């Protein structure tokens, strides 16, 4: 599901948090003189076996398999079984975990615009069929629709609402633009699409359209000499971004079973407040252009609205808000609502320590026949990972810790398969989980990215030094370091790590994507196909292989080392950074807040973390198995302390007090979310309560590692 690449757009809440947004990439100008090429770090014999096991050719075969069959959530049990069978063949016993969840599927939709003079424009709502790209020609190719969108119709004047953030709508309201009763036309970008729909609904608007603006393309445009897909890496103007419109920042998982697993006969909760009630449809630039043009000169021009990212890149358009008197949109959206089985494939390697577990996951479902990038680049990789681990097992390897391989279903609708599984196994996970490793879009371009909880930063970046990055003669670490200035991103949401993190299980998310000038990734479009991947995304499938080698080595080390390779003092270092960010937010706010309790809690945590490092060194140097187990269990358990049982304000699901997706971002993280969001909302009483709660959570985590 991860966020579509948005190269140019930065809508920072505050500057330093921007780095956390996984797919808002920020490329620093590379300093060619200092261009670093570190030698490849040495690998153990087992690590070399893993690396040698990875084959770009077999990865391409797995990719071809997954991208040539309808595998929308709940519609392809045979792919789930095939995945489990591949792992079983490799020597890892695997089976399916089934849940019965609420989903909806598209029946039909339509969009037309009636001008004041009575003439009508009919939007096509379809992506062009391209002979070069076989799955775009299939009769059962997926229409453009929004998962979990409401069935309904609307006929009304419409308003252009920019990115559709709460602040965009507020700004328009402040400028006197009438929103109630109108249709919202929002552009994609920055925040999770379901929140754009929610914000429209909260303003009394009657439907929401979300379109792809050329501002998302950066410099990769026809005007700059790039050809449109299928002839080149520029976006085809008929491309549509499908996706879920669930209210991700409050209610991930099956909306009908909040907090408990979805079985066939589970009690179903009322969903009217957790899913949109107004219809929505995703549209292409091609279909949006006449709509934007019809608003020209009506309402408030974009320059006067003056919000970051509000004005897009359609030449000659002022992005007037509208409404244009007498110009109406007719929106119709019909969905079939079902309670239907979904299938996670689960493979297990038992470790010698039964009470420590590493979990590796990727989702399998896609919005389209293809899904070559999202998610099946990751799926191809975890099939290959199973084979690599199978080779080690055949050589007599026994990991210290259990390794669980997961291929999730229904991630796209709202992290459904992973969330239901976590809800089912929460007692066992709380007792044994050490880390969850997620790979969603493994490959969509040549730039690696990671986001992780702080204890994993060191092992995650060290492991990059063991990976040769394709076509560069440099390590993965060098490329990543140059792109990010050595900063590991903070986890928000948008993929399957979410349910784990918010039950106190540390996680990493990883993938690779395009930078400036690279082919544009056709996210959630029919063009995210095997053909696109083999031609533009990752010709030769070498980035797939490199990401797979990386994930496998990371998992191997987390599962095998005597001492879990965690860096706890870095948790204190990162909290220091979040503390500085928070101080900045408070300093520009209108109120007063005392955060000395938070300061003290972080400082205490730091000294406890330093003490446990000493204890771990003692355990390793004396090879004291009992003491190693004591330390390993502290490492395994400490993160649970950061969670708050009742969850964040009005969002019980989100329990981690150190980071969470922003309530109005869905993808991008907010650090110290309870405090930060209360300050932003201007509620200093609430903020003060959350200073106490957050500091208390840090103390609980610290007490778990206390020696
Ligand atoms: C399921 O996926 C496989 C492989 O992509 C495909 O061959 C098969 O036709 C799909 N099944 C259905 C019911 O679409
Ligand atoms: C959409 O589907 C519904 C249910 O199948 C049907 O009643 C309706 O006529 C269809 N509308 C259009 C425009 O095809
Ligand atoms: C109606 O107005 C639209 C938009 O101004 C224009 O493109 C179209 O030609 C007009 N149709 C007629 C029949 O005048
Ligand atoms: C669910 O309920 C139906 C109807 O009562 C019953 O036939 C079925 O066996 C139940 N399923 C499970 C898993 O209990
Ligand atoms: C836009 O807002 C910025 C700061 O919020 C302000 O400095 C600038 O003058 C505004 N521009 C217009 C055209 O209103
Ligand atoms: C792994 O351990 C579990 C729990 O002890 C046991 O049920 C299962 O049979 C074991 N699997 C294998 C392949 O040994
Ligand atoms: C790759 O790096 C090695 C060692 O730094 C160097 O000897 C070799 O010439 C380089 N190859 C290319 C193609 O740059
Ligand atoms: C890169 O990181 C260093 C050290 O943290 C910092 O001093 C520098 O300003 C950063 N550069 C950029 C471009 O962010
Ligand atoms: C686009 O090109 C312009 C002019 O060459 C350059 O200044 C800018 O940094 C480029 N933007 C991106 C995202 O590459
Ligand atoms: C795998 O890599 C080799 C060597 O670069 C290349 O010749 C081959 O075409 C690649 N396989 C696929 C399926 O792209
Ligand atoms: C540490 O102790 C374990 C069991 O007591 C033994 O198997 C292992 O070889 C020892 N390791 C070292 C490095 O001495
Ligand atoms: C601020 O939060 C408190 C809960 O601590 C709540 O009772 C109060 O209503 C909130 N104030 C506003 C203005 O929302």
Automatic annotation (TrEMBL):
Signal peptide range: 1-20
Keywords recorded for this protein, A-Z: Signal
Region (Disordered): 247-269
Family matches, as CDD domains: M28_PSMA_like, PA_GCPII_like
Domain Transferrin receptor-like dimerisation stretches: 593-705
Highest taxon above the source species: Eukaryota
SUPFAM superfamilies, A to Z: PA domain, Transferrin receptor-like dimerisation domain, Zn-dependent exopeptidases
PROSITE patterns: PROKAR_LIPOPROTEIN
Residues annotated as domain PA: 166-231
Domain Peptidase M28: 344-530
UniProt GO MF annotations: carboxypeptidase activity
Similarity comment text for this entry: Belongs to the peptidase M28 family. M28B subfamily.
Name of this chain's protein: Glutamate carboxypeptidase
Organism: Cladosporium halotolerans
Lineage: Eukaryota, Fungi, Dikarya, Ascomycota, Pezizomycotina
């Amino acid at each position: 599901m991860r966020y579509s690449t948005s190269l140019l757009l930065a809508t920072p809440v505050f500057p330093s948090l921007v780095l956390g947004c996984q797919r808002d990439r920020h490329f620093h100008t590379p300093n060619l003189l200092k261009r670093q090429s570190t030698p490849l770090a040495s690998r153990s014999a087992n690590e070399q076996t893993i690396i040698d096991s990875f084959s770009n050719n077999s990865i391409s075969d797995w990719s071809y398999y997954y991208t040539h069959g309808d595998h929308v959530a709940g519609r392809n049990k045979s792919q789930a079984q095939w995945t489990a069978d591949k792992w079983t063949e490799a020597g890892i016993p695997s089976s399916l975990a089934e849940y019965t969840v609420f989903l909806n599927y598209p029946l039909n939709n339509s969009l037309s615009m009636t001008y004041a003079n009575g003439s009508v424009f009919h939007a096509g709502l379809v992506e062009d069929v391209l002979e070069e790209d076989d799955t775009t020609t299939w009769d059962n190719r997926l229409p453009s629709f929004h998962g979990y969108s409401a069935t309904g119709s609307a006929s009304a004047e419409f308003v252009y609402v920019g990115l559709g953030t709460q602040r965009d709508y507020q700004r328009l309201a402040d400028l006197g633009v009438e929103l109630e009763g109108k249709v919202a036309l929002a552009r994609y970008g920055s925040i999770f699409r379901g929140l754009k729909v929610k914000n429209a609904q909260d303003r009394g608007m009657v439907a929401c359209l979300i379109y792809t603006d050329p501002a998302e393309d950066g410099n990769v445009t026809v005007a700059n000499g790039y050809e449109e897909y299928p002839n080149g890496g520029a976006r085809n103007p008929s491309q549509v971004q499908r996706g879920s419109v669930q209210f991700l920042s409050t209610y991930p998982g099956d909306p009908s079973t909040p907090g408990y697993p979805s079985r066939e006969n589970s009690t179903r909760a009322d969903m009217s407040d957790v899913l949109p009630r107004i219809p929505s449809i995703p549209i292409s630039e091609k279909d949006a252009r006449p709509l934007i043009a019809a608003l020209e000169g009506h309402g408030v021009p974009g320059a006067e609205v003056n919000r970051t990212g509000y004005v897009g890149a359609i030449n000659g358009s002022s992005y007037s808000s509208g409404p244009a008197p007498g110009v109406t949109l007719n929106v119709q959206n019909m969905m079939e609502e079902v309670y239907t089985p979904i299938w996670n494939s689960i493979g297990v390697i038992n470790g010698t320590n039964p009470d420590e577990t590493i979990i590796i996951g990727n989702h399998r479902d896609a919005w389209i026949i293809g899904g070559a990038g999202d998610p099946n680049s990751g799926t191809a990789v975890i099939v290959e990972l199973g084979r690599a681990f199978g080779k080690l097992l055949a050589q007599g390897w026994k990991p210290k810790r259990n390794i669980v391989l997961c291929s999730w279903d229904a991630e796209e609708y709202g992290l459904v398969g992973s969330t239901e599984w976590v809800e089912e196994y929460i007692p066992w996970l709380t007792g044994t989980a050490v880390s969850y490793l997620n790979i969603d879009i493994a490959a969509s371009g040549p730039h690696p990215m990671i986001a992780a909880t702080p204890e994993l930063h060191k092992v995650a970046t060290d492991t990059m030094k063991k990976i040769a990055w394709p076509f560069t003669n440099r390590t993965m670490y060098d490329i990543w370091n140059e792109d990010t200035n050595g900063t590991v991103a903070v986890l928000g949401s948008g993929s399957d790590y979410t349910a784990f993190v918010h039950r106190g299980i540390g996680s990493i998310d990883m993938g690779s994507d395009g930078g400036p000038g690279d082919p544009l990734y056709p996210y959630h479009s029919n063009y995210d196909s095997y053909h696109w991947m083999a031609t533009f995304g990752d010709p030769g499938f070498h980035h797939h292989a490199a990401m797979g080698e990386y994930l496998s080595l990371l998992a191997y080390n987390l599962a095998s080392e005597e001492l879990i390779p965690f860096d706890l003092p870095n948790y204190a270092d990162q909290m220091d950074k979040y503390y500085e960010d928070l101080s900045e937010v408070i300093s520009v706010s209108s109120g007063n807040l005392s955060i000395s309790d938070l300061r003290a809690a972080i400082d205490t945590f730091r000294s406890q973390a330093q003490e446990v490092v000493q204890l771990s060194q003692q355990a390793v140097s004396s090879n004291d198995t009992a003491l190693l187990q004591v330390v390993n269990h502290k490492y395994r358990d400490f993160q649970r302390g950061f969670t708050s049982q009742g969850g964040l304000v009005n969002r019980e699901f989100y329990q981690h007090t150190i980071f969470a997706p922003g309530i109005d971002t869905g993808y991008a993280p907010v650090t110290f979310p309870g405090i930060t969001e209360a300050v932003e909302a201007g509620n200093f009483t609430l903020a003060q309560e959350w200073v106490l709660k957050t500091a208390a959570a840090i103390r609980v985590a610290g007490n778990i590692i206390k020696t």
